[in-house]
Amino acid sequence: MSLSRTSSLARLAGGVALAAITAAGAAQAEGTVTIGRTSDADRYDPQRSSALAAAEVLYMMGDTLVTLSHDLKTVEPALAESWELSDDGLTYTFHLRKDVTYCDGKAFTAKDVVGSMERWLTPEGPYVSAWKAGTVDSITAPDDYTVVYKLKSPSSGLLYQMAQFNFIIIDPEQAASLGDDFGVKAFNGTGAYCFDSWTPNDSLVLKKHEGYAWGTAALGNTGPAKVDEVVWKIIPEEATLVASLQAGEIDGTYALPAWAFAQFEADPGFKLIQPVASFRTHYVGMKVTRPFMQDIKVREAVSHAIDQGAIADAIFFGTVKPAEAYYSEDALDFDPSTDLAPFAYDPDKTKALLEEEGFTMGSDGFWQKDGEKLALTYYGFNTSREQAEAIQGDLRKAGIDLNVELYDSTAIWAKLREQTYDLYQMDYPYLNAGDALNLYFSSDSIPSPNRMMWDDAETDKLLAEGNSAVNDEARAKAFMALGKHLHESILWKPLLLEKPTVAIGPRLKEFQPAGISGAAFGTGLNLELN
Amino acid sequence: MTDATYTGSGSRTWRRLRRNPMVTIALGVLILIALAAIFAPWLTSFDPYETALRQRLKPPSAEHLLGTDSQGRDLLTRLLYGARTTLLIGCAGTAFGALLGGAIGLCAAFYRRLDGVFMRVIDVFLSFPSILFGLSLAAILGPGLDSLIIAVGLSVMPGIARISRGAALSVMAQDYMDSGRSIGLPDRSLLGRYLLANAYPPILTYTTLAFGDAVLLAATLGFLGLGLQPPTAELGSIAAEGRSFLFIAPHVSTAASILIFVIVLSFNLLGDALRDAGDRRAS
Question: What is the number of structural domains in chain A?
Answer without folding.
Answer: 2
